[in-house]
Amino acid sequence: MKKEFVVIGLGRFGGSIVNELIELDADVMAIDISPEKVDAYAQIATQAVAADTTDESVLRSLGIRNFEHVVVAIGENIQASILTTLMLKEIGVKKITVKAQNDYHEKVLRKIGADQVVHPERDMGIRIANNMVSNNILDYLELSDEHSIAEIKANDKLVGFTLIDLDIRAKYGVNIVAIKRGKQILVSPQAIEKIQLEDILIVIGSDADIHRFEKKAL
Ligand code: ATP
Ligand code: ATP
Ligand code: CA
């Protein structure tokens, strides 16, 4: 059985979700108030519908209730985004993800029961800024407000030493969960593993510990 999703709002963000879900072999109903936007996805989405999603009867007639997860990617029109989320909640959609435009928008969305609120522009900005100030952190994934997984490039202060030599967990509180070495990936490396030039360490820990590790060890 294919997973079935609904994406409302076919701007750059919603559109990219539709494309990727289709790539991932899911069924997608793509909805936008603008017929031109809908036309652009007619050949891509499983179903593309022109509709105003702030209208509850429209949502009911499309059978939105039966989909497992709905994404609301209406950006600029905050009122339409909030009303749509409210209607989805009222008809009993199980999981709703909404793109927020700002913190006030997010607060309201959470109050009315959005399951997940995302800020793609803000989050991508934070990510890029972090990459800019750190030469060694290649990428990171937030696990919570305070914990992350980071990809850190090993440098010559680490190369040739084992994890025991460096005593990383004990000294910095971070765990190396994997080491990327060229095309290879060593999952759960042994304590006696020697770090090599060009290794990329995948570490998990609190943001504070990861930064301490990156500053002090590298
Ligand atoms: P981007 O992802 O490109 O940054 P954005 O955040 O700037 O998008 P908008 O372009 O304002 O968001 O909105 C995304 C889409 O949502 C638009 O294509 C718009 O037509 C659609 N939309 C706006 N109001 C409604 C509505 N009531 N019902 C359905 N779709 C709507
Ligand atoms: P711990 O006292 O931390 O439980 P341990 O008894 O499991 O360590 P070893 O596995 O031999 O002992 O590791 C010795 C030290 O090497 C650890 O205390 C830790 O500092 C470091 N170390 C080993 N594996 C890792 C890892 N995957 N990530 C970070 N540090 C590690
Ligand atoms: Ca925008």
Automatic annotation (TrEMBL):
The cross-references to SUPFAM superfamilies, in alphabetical order and at most eight, read:
NAD(P)-binding Rossmann-fold domains, TrkA C-terminal domain-like
InterPro entries documented for this protein: NAD(P)-bd_dom_sf, RCK_C, RCK_C_sf, RCK_N, Trk_Ktr_HKT_K-transport
Xref: Gene3D superfamilies = NAD(P)-binding Rossmann-like Domain (3.40.50.720), Regulator of K+ conductance, C-terminal domain (3.30.70.1450)
One Gene Ontology term from the biological process aspect of the record: potassium ion transport
Entry GO MF terms: monoatomic cation transmembrane transporter activity
Q: Where is the RCK N-terminal domain?
A: 2-118
Q: Where is the RCK C-terminal domain?
A: 135-218
Q: What is this protein called?
A: Trk system potassium uptake protein TrkA
